[in-house]
Amino acid sequence: xxxxxxxxxxxxxxxxxxxxxxxxxxxxxxxxxxxxxxxxxxxxxxxxxxxxxxxxxxxxxxxxxxxxx
Length: 69
What we know:
Elements: E1 7-16, E2 23-32, H1 38-51, H2 53-58, E3 63-68
Parallel strand pairs: 2-3
Antiparallel strand pairs: 1-2
Family: Belongs to the OsmC/Ohr family.
Protein name: Peroxiredoxin, Ohr subfamily
């Protein structure tokens, strides 16, 4: 398998934190893996999110939605 033309777009959102009345961040990652079956693309995106050092640093602190296009 050869990955080419991969695009990841991050959309950072700010919303109300119901737990303390303040604000919280969330991220929606739109992932495009052209030429890869959807199920395999979703698996690759999930694995990348688990491995990513930025994801590791923010895990449990920011809601993340992975959206494979």
